[in-house]
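Structure ticket #2291
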Amino acid sequence: MGKEVTKNYTVLNNEVYGITMRANISNLTDNIEMFFTQKDLVGVASCSSWDGKGNLTWTTSGCETVKINNTIKCSCSHLTFFAVLMSPPDVNANITAPYVDSLSFITSIGCGISMFFLSAGLFMHFLLRKAKSNQATKILINMFVAFFLLNLSFLSNESVANTEVKSACVFIALLMHYSMLTTFTWFFIQALHMYLWLIRQNVTITNYMRKITVFSWTFSAPIVIAVVSVGGYKAVITNTTSGKTTRMCWITDPLIHYIVNIGYYAFVFFFTTGVFIMIVTKIVQARHIRAPDGKRKTFRKQLMMVLSLFLLFGLTWAVAFFSYGAMLIPSYYIFTVLNSFQGFFLFLYYYHIHNDVAGVFSDDPESSSSTTTIVQSRINAVENIYN
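Resolution: structure written out below.
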């Protein structure tokens, strides 16, 4: 008898296990564990179940899949009919498998360096600063905290996943997802602040810093709670050509990933890119405004300013959009290097404004305890960008 095919999937070994008690049994305290074995497993395995009613429709809900060499371990929290469905091999996974070790090494080193410099920046800000911080610095420091949590949760993720404790895996995945979305939000706030200060101007906002701080740190909470409620955080198994198997706790549903992560970042990306283009336009205009003074800055300093804004807005994450075809591997390396070391780049930016004796990076508007009024002349705004 040939293998049974359901849509684009094949039932492994044509084996279906039925565990029933003539009642709907679910949310078991101790999961049911089943093992399926076959030599030379080809394709992506997923433990699935069918409720025995109506058409043969398989679902992965309530089951976890663990691949151990040529054995598939299925751990399910309910009783019904079970099988392992094999989907065609992921072409991209086969292409990237030889590079997983090197990419992981670069990421670990980069995240470690970023955490060191982010810690140094936070230390300088909270323990060594003598003057009251302006709004731009406060926003940058919040970005430091969010990015530090993202790096910390990422570096801890594999160790937590290897414990195979489900609650711990869900927590670390939740923390990493929350930190990532919050980091995106602070990228958005940084761009919004520069837009209000340099482009929009003459804007009065009550409790400005309090509002943006509360919004940025709470916006992602309902999202991660919703993902937890649908069981979206699980362990993900990655195999390399060296035979090493790595475990990570993350979102396993591609639909959730594309809607929540890619969709949200796409919104942030288009907004920050628009602000970035407007600021670069201002820099070009500043050259003409300051030309009569004979004090044009060098192209090198202008380029560094543009690159600083580019990194500050988190636009390097957009490199992942080009992870297709011939650009798949190069984009992975570019994305890994730039984003792993982003904490270091942000520290350099903070250090520069921390030592800004001339005050050209100051953005403190006329303010009181409850109201912030962002007022600045067009020429002064352009000159502040330019410097």
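Closing remark: The chain has eleven helices and 13 strands.
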